[in-house]
Design the sequence.
């Protein structure tokens, strides 16, 4: 029997077990860098299957599955462990038991799929050459990102020949996967601005320095970063999602706080844009009589999939699922801390379809209504196992 059929059979056979694991993780979500029970649960499962786990980064887990001639080549498979501070609104038998915390980004799917792949690969270690490195990573959702911490702690030493990551995609129907060679996801920076003026009675604005008015001008003016300063060839997004002006209908406050995000795909332009925004803000606010504190917290870099690796794995996915179930992904300005790995090694970050439009399972990630068609776990565990073996077999 050919290897992909063996993997498919094992994915089917272990589906109920991996589904139960996913449900347990989903019911017991933990926030970034607080995944102590999740980490212990993952370690327990690996140990039960004869795979030796070690702790890294406080709540991360690393383990190895060594095939024949283990030093020939190493492929690293990565999943993330953390959940989000969201109140779950999905009514299910596996809904979150930790009020205000939810696996709304599918990390429970990533972790359980990688556990399933680990179980399959461990049973096949006599059938492949090389080593599969399993990394269950903490803190993807929170700066500075668990990936950056694990890299500092040596997770890439020695450097793997390839790193593969998988992420849910509710827009994509269950049973399908998506790939994109080259640039795929944006860098992500957080912006925190405080505009200070002089508050007072709203009926006597001439006696005040109105930080609300100044902030309105500033928010509009900063859009020049996208519309006039960014090269059209470099996708760029600047959005402000939070404005706090603690006044009233007739009260002008002393200050306004603004929070936003800046995203792009070029590191030189990214650094330049930061300085341009700070200079513009200072000049505009001071010209209107106020002062400004403009802070940018650099986040994750852009994510770039290795061209050759991703094309090879996309073809492997076609062999496993059929051409009709493997799609080409569009560029997107969402961010991912897997991006850190892509600046150190050959990487492929692909998408796993978890949606089911007929069943109404289509809520986006980071939504309190996010859920999956659990049949995606069959594809998830099988695909990770198959891609790892496909890459190990490449000369």
Sequence:
């Amino acid at each position: 029997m050919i290897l992909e059929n063996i993997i498919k059979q094992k994915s089917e056979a272990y589906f109920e077990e991996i589904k139960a694991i996913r449900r347990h993780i989903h019911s017991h979500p933990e926030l970034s860098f607080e995944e102590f029970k999740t980490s212990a649960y993952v370690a327990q499962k690996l140990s039960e299957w004869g795979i030796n786990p070690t702790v890294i980064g406080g709540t991360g887990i690393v383990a190895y599955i060594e095939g024949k001639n283990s030093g020939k080549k190493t492929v690293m498979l990565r999943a993330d462990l953390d959940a989000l501070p969201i109140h779950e609104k999905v009514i299910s038998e596996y809904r979150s038991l930790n009020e205000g915390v939810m696996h709304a980004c599918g990390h429970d799917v990533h972790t359980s799929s990688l556990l399933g792949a680990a179980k399959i690969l461990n049973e096949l270690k006599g059938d492949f050459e090389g080593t599969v490195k399993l990394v269950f990573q903490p803190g993807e959702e929170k700066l500075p990102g668990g990936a950056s911490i694990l890299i500092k702690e040596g997770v890439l030493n020695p450097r793997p020949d390839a790193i593969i990551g998988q992420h849910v995609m509710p827009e994509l129907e269950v049973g399908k996967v998506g790939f994109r060679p080259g640039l795929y996801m944006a860098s992500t920076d957080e912006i925190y601005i405080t505009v200070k003026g002089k508050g007072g009675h709203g009926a006597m604005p001439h006696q005040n320095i109105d930080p609300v008015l100044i902030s309105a001008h500033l928010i509009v003016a900063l859009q020049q970063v996208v519309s006039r300063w960014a090269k059209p060839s470099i996708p760029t997004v600047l959005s402000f999602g939070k404005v706090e002006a603690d006044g009233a209908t007739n009260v002008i406050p002393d200050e306004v706080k603004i929070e936003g995000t800046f995203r792009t795909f070029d590191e030189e332009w990214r650094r330049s844009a930061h300085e341009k925004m700070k200079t513009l803000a200072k000049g505009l606010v001071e010209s209107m009589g106020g002062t400004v504190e403009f802070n940018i917290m650099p986040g994750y870099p852009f994510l770039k999939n290795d061209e050759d690796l991703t094309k090879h794995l996309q073809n492997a996915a076609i062999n496993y699922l059929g051409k009709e179930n493997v799609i080409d992904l569009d560029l997107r300005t969402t961010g991912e801390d897997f991006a850190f790995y892509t600046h150190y090694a050959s990487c492929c970050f692909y998408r796993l379809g978890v949606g089911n439009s007929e069943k109404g399972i289509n809520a986006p990630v980071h939504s309190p209504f996010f859920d999956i068609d659990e049949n995606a776990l069959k594809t998830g565990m099988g695909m990770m196992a198959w891609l790892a073996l496909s890459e190990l077999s490449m000369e």
